[in-house]
Fold this protein.
Amino acid sequence: MHEDLLGYVLGSLDEEEQAEVERWLKDHPEAIEEMERLRNGLDAIRLEEQPAPEGLALRTSRHVFARSHGHGDVSSGSGVRRFQFKLTDYVVAASIVLVATILLFPAIQRSRTEAREMACKRNLQGLGVALNEYSNVWGGYFPPVPQTGQFSFAGVYGPTLVQGGFLTDAVALQCPGKGKHPNRRAPIPTMDNIRKSPQGSKGYEVLTRLAGGDYAYSFGYLHKRRYHTWTSAREDHVPILSDLPPEVPDSSNNSESHGGRGQNTLWSDGSVSWATTHTLTGKDTNIYVNKDGKVAAGIGSEDIVLAPSDSRPSSF
Amino acid sequence: MSGATGKTPESPQVRPSEPSDEELLLRYRDSGEQQAFDHLVKRFEAELYNYLRRYLGNAAMAEDVFQASFLQVHLKSHLFEEGRRFKPWLYTIATNQAIDAILRSGKHRAVSLDSQGPEDSDVGTLVNILSDGELGPQEEMEVRERKDWVRESVNELAEPLRGVVLLVFFQGLKYRDAAEILDIPVGTVKSRLHSALIKLGGALKRRPIDTGEDE
């Protein structure tokens, strides 16, 4: 039996190999029957294709281009039939809505919570696109958090992306799940605002708190006494952004952005995952503090620290 | 004489008048034309989704990884070199994304078929194992039941065998493309496919059949 008969039946051979099998089959007509048996056997274990979920391609394109086109759906107002309601229709409709609300309230609450988690995830995906585009322009480096100086705070990535034109819609910096946060809907300060505000002043404090929105961004790490910034070139992907840490970062509590259930995390390859623990990589037990349990630069190239906007990488 | 089983492995949806996958990606890379990108996503929508659904065994994860894969296509389009083929490049990205997703979800699969069944890679053995004449009782199986069994058996294959069987047998890719995606020699692709199909055929034969008769 020819060793490439299987590849021939599957159509997996190159043209040259295919021609060779055809020549061999001409010389061995008895093998054609065998080939048909093989083909039928393969058909018996072949699984049929399933259609992709409705609108997958469209959602994917929107997801990829969310940064430049925003997140809103375009809905057409044409073709909507207008309907004349009578008073009784309103009463009946109101009763139905009331009963449905009572019955469905827990489910609605749950789905709203899930919707907020998903919206947060989409924001992080949009930020992932912006961060990766930044890194493409800047030799693979993500926006750095300087070790010292006026711009040495975690949230500096926000104004960096906005001012560099990598993020056109700063709303992405705000997590929809974070209802009580004072930053909500607050504008993102510009680099110039920050530059002009004296360090230690009340204004500087507010600006550095607002700059990073509702997400925690990764500090660099110290290696051989030098401070390094994360890059997208690492083969092992690392967390870059996540929901804000709990009030006590060095604890096992989850972020409060989603009611303590868990946190969304953006990875350096642009993907976003949901986790119910702070241990996201095998080598780092808590992404919110460094190996010394401090909210400061990582210690070594495996130590990831995602910090709230106004945190500084140098703890001295 | 035609060997293919009705599938045309190279970009099945592309009509001659349509731009090739590579032309679309290069157009997108060079001019940022979103329509070209949308066209590519649509072209691979069903094919890549089916691959990922089988690879991950989970429809929701497949959808997420599909989106993540095209995000990578967008982000890495500047690295795509002229003269390279798009399809193996896309499958490489998608496979890596799927592996990452599995690692992150902690859903590692148990392997059981790896140590079962015959290892003979001769085509004659394969014909005997798979040929319809020998399936016997399986012919009585409901088609749906048999497909479920195949799906389960594919999921139980050892990872190196499963990767090859998904790409070559189910996705209809050429040996050389699968070799490029998995970064292994073509000969290894062939031998793994043989072993995988023999194990699948063997599993199908060993499956207990419910004849519906009372003892």
